Amino acid sequence: MDFQLSTEEEAFRDEVRAFIEQNLPSDSDRFNPAALANWNQKAREARYIGFAWPKDVGGGGGSIMQQVILKEEMAKVKAPSLGTCFMGLAWVGPSIIQYGNEKQKQQYIPEILDGAYQWCTGYSEPDSGSDLASLKCKCVRDGDEYVVNGQKIWTSIAMWSKMIILLVRTETEVDQKHDGITCLLVPMDDPGIEVRPIRNMGGGAVFAEVFFNEVRVPVENRLGAEGQGWQVTISALANERSSIAEVYGLTRKMEDVKQLARETRRAGKRAIDIPSVRRRILRAEMKIEAMRLNGQRFLTKQLKGEPLGSETSINKLHRAALEVELGELAVEINGSAGTLTKGSDEAPDDGAWAQFALGWPEVVIGGGTPNIQKNIIAERILGLPKD
Amino acid sequence: MNFGFSEEQELLRAEVRKFLDQNASIEETRKIVESQEGFDRHLWNRMAELGWVGLTMPEQHGGMGLGLVTLLVVLEETGRSLFPSPLISTVIAAKAIERFGNDEQQARWLPGLADGSQVATFALLEQSDDLAAEGIELTSTRDGDDVLLRGRKLYVPDACTANLIVVAVRSGADPEAVSLVVVESDAAGLEATDLPAMDLSKRLGKIDFSDVRVPAASVLGSPGTAWPAIRYLIDLGAALVTAETVGAAEQANQITVDFAKERIQFGSPIGRFQGVKHPLAEMYVDIESYKSLIYYAFWALDEGEDGAALAISRAKAYASETFPEAGINGVQLHGGVGYTWEYDIQLYLKRGKWMRPMFGDANYHYDRIASLGGL
Ligand SMILES: Cc1cc2nc3c(=O)[nH]c(=O)nc-3n(C[C@H](O)[C@H](O)[C@H](O)COP(=O)(O)OP(=O)(O)OC[C@H]3O[C@@H](n4cnc5c(N)ncnc54)[C@H](O)[C@@H]3O)c2cc1C
What we know:
The complex is a heterodimer of chains A (387) and B (375).
Chain A: H1 7-23, H2 33-45, H3 64-76, H4 86-99, H5 102-114, E1 119-122, E2 138-142, E3 145-156, E4 163-169, E5 181-187, E6 193-198, E7 207-218, E8 222-223, H6 229-237, H7 244-263, E9 265-266, E10 269-270, H8 275-303, H9 312-333, H10 352-357, H11 361-364, H12 370-381
Parallel strand pairs in A: 1-4
Antiparallel strand pairs in A: 2-3, 3-7, 4-5, 5-8, 6-7, 9-10
Helix pairs in contact in A: 1-3, 3-7, 4-5, 4-6, 7-8, 7-9, 8-9, 9-12
Chain B: H1 7-23, H2 26-33, H3 41-49, H4 68-80, H5 87-100, H6 103-114, E1 120-123, E2 139-143, E3 146-157, E4 164-170, E5 178-184, E6 190-194, E7 204-215, E8 219-220, H7 227-262, E9 264-265, E10 268-269, H8 274-303, H9 308-334, H10 345-355, H11 362-373
Parallel strand pairs in B: 1-4
Antiparallel strand pairs in B: 2-3, 3-7, 4-5, 5-8, 6-7, 9-10
Helix pairs in contact in B: 1-4, 4-7, 5-6, 5-7, 7-8, 7-9, 7-10, 8-9, 9-10, 9-11
Bound molecules: flavin-adenine dinucleotide.
Residues 121-124, 129-130, 154-156, 207, 361-362, 365-366, 369, 371-372, 375 of chain A line the site of flavin-adenine dinucleotide (FAD).
């Protein structure tokens, strides 16, 4: 065991720190569009956006360790995200790099890196959520075009996106439901596409239903081969591996909860001195530290060139539990005032905790539910029979 | 960056695994634990010959001079097999002598520990069952060139088999005025008695000291200043116990997984039902997670990192909260056969009972985390 960085790695860390020193927007500029645009332009020049991607497509060609260092340093200073095309950077880009033809790479990758517009993800359907491979969105070939009819749901940021990465069914008579699925890259401005935002329990509307009515998509917009859509999707989702950013996010939330527990008085005591509150804080911190170290073990595996598999579900389960727990803990610490939302002097932190406590489904449901993660561990790691 | 074991360490693991598979199958272990001593001296001597007992002891005294991380792989495997041996007790006592004893004391006692001819233990707890300095009440009184020890130690691991006992004693009124004294078990006035306990593979005993006379030269370090040393030994003990618990928990889960693949009810292996597979998956998540914590803690101990104590307490708290549950789940998921003496899962349930309070339960370690982390 050895947790030291090599000299080259230390040098890279210094480089990132120098970049941050020079370019990080000041606290007052954190939400200033011009400052953020400048940050992203500088990051683009330094190739920190798409840093893991190969250099020949415009990425940074960063090694695994360099990616870790970059993420860590950015997280430490709570830097704005690197790049603005969230889903493009998270999985659309990696899918295109792996399965796209030259033309697709040249067309889409630079735009994702530049954050020219948003991509959204059309996987889930009303009857196909956890059981994604059962999806039915109909797609028939007609000469040089595909004709798409069907519906997607829970499509995050569909209303603000210019493109959608879409899974459709091109074949219905298949032995295995994973066959016959095809991946298409579709412009959202087609007149046959209708987007209806859905209001979530927090009151906002960030996801939507998306309806496809005789939408014609050129065959050249297909990503990968016809019927290969499942592999394209799986390998793209497998790009979301390291939990470093999540661990830093949780650590920060944890600090805020501790601060809240120190400052809030309940029945004459500081909340942090209530044994059950204390215990919950200490236990959550212990889990976050375990997540951090689990991540280091996964990273060690990657550095040895071994592929990461289902063990990443370990940290997903921890994270899901912690997202709920930290919100609940904060709201409970706030007592009656914890029930208040933004809009009165009585609401702690102007309702920020209430908002947080209503936000966990994005993590807990959005990325594969805990039950599904447990099935993955039980079946793929422990070898128990499929249900 | 490398959060894994070296090739040598993996080889050692394979060697230990093979040795235990050949010599300490669970049937064999069941026989050993029912014997008078509760461990097999012949196997112990062979392990010592292979260098595993003296792994972390200094080379000039017959040890291998290796780090605790190397010992970790041995402990994971002994834990997996529930192998009954005084390895942890002996290692703790040897560390006490190595770190806090002078050259003469080291030369006198360590070679016998490294070569397996002597077994040692650390006697700390008393009637109050309190791991704080105040819990140490056994008195030591200076009498010429000797000290006289009077009192009773409880819950001492391997009390009846140890030849050498590192005893925590009180030498003054100040709460932290405590010392460490090495006592040979054949000293007049010393009597060790077995305390029958749930886990037969881990012997616990009480030791009565009725004016036991030991030379003052057997005190480790200067009298009355041993509290930091004892703190270190508690941390070390918690770390070693947690390392064994990694292997034990993995095996408990594996036994239950294997059973769930075989046992058919409602026309299918019960492992297909989520009420069975999900607790097993949850246990896997917890084991992997406290494993990461304890691996890091061992590294931090070897490196003398400031964070070692905090890391140990996190790992022990996590393990103490989850491993006993793995045993209970395991028995429950077996159904009726899980309740039988014959099936092995119950042995792991009992190991959970032993490990939970050993060198501090979750309550103790959460408090310690709070005090170390400035809550
Ligand atoms: C905030 C948010 C954003 C999202 N963004 C997107 C997006 O951009 N694009 C997109 O395509 N999708 C998106 N999703 C959809 C998300 O992927 C699905 O909600 C998720 O896969 C679960 O599917 P479902 O909602 O149909 O629930 P279901 O699959 O119907 O599940 C309902 C319940 O049943 C349980 N369950 C289902 N199957 C099993 C089983 N085999 N064993 C045990 N329990 C089971 C689940 O755990 C869950 O508790 C988003 C979801 C959320 C909440």
